[in-house]
Amino acid sequence: MNQGWTSGRIRIGVVDSSHAAAQAPHVAASAAFVLVGGEPCRVPAEPDRLGHGSRVGDSLLHCVPQAELLVAQVFRERLTTSAAQVAAAIDWLVDGGARLINLSLGLREPRPVLAAACARALAAGVVLCASAPARGQPVYPADFPGVLRVTGDARCAAPGEIAALGAAHADYGAYVRPLDGSLAGAGASMACAWLSGAAARHLAAGGSAASLPGWLVAQARYHGVEDLESLKRERRGHGR
Q1: Which of 20, 138, 151, 225 is deepest in the core (most CB within 10 A)?
Q2: What is residue 229's predicted lDDT score, i.e. its pLDDT?
Q3: Is 51 in contact with 185 (CB distance < 8 Å)?
Q4: Nearest 5°: CA angle at 203, between 150 and 110?
């Protein structure tokens, strides 16, 4: 039986920079994916030197405290990686029983190797949530078919608040700051983690991947993007 489907619990895959030591009791397995001779190779994960994956993990566990994390490290010294590494990480997480995979990252080119890994995950019933920029060119895996595209939304002023955007650039928006409210790592990456946490809560409670989009829309505090830019200007004017 796929362990990610155990009643009341859920395995969440995290493709990022590893995890914090304090999160170790929640980590079912971890591995790093590096390039050796141009090919992805799985090796033991290293501690999180960047803090990015740790902040993502904090958000996920805040939303779903009973979750088990499967952590695939693709960032080490810098927040740079390759499509081949991310693709190998996704395949490993699917094999490990992840029911949802958080991808707080974006690559500029739609590489076939990454598209194929995402397609395999979706075909297996795994939900993929990926960060998307608020403007500019699309990034991947967010812009692949079937992937939930998440960006930051200034209207979402607290953890748990989400927006159903239905926009050309993103499907959903969410709170942009990490759990401690700091600006460190704030942006679409953290928004993706908060949206993933909400989605994981639905799945852990017995919801299906098919019903998830409708459930997220029903949970959203904000809908559409019509007033987003004016709200940003208003908040800047009030020092927020």
Answers
A1: 151
A2: 52
A3: yes
A4: 35
Task: Give the number of other CB atoms < 10 A from CB of residue 205.
Answer: 12
pTM over cut 0.85: yes
CA distances, 76 to each of 15, 33, 46, 50 (Å): 12, 10, 8, 7
Cβ proximity of 231 and 155 under 8 Å: yes
Specify the length of the chain in residues: 240
Distances (CA, A) of 64 to 78, 113, 114, 135: 28, 31, 28, 30
pLDDT tens, 143-188? 999 999 999 999 999 999 999 999 999 999 999 999 999 888 889 9
| Contacts with 237 (C-beta within 8 Å, 6 or more apart), sequence order | none
| DSSP labels, the chain | --GGG-TT--EEEEEES---GGGGGGEEEEEEEEEETTEEEEE-----SSSHHHHHHHHHHHH-TTPEEEEEE--SSSS---HHHHHHHHHHHHHTT-SEEEE---BSS--HHHHHHHHHHHHTT-EEEEE--SSSS--BTTTSTTPEEEEE-TT--STT-EEE---SS-SEEE--S-TT--STT-SHHHHHHHHHHHHHHHHHTT--TTTHHHHHHHH-SEESSTTHHHHHHHHHHTT-
Mean of all residue pLDDT scores within the chain: 91
| Burial tier of 9 (Cβ tally within 10 Å: 0-12, 13-18, 19+) | middle
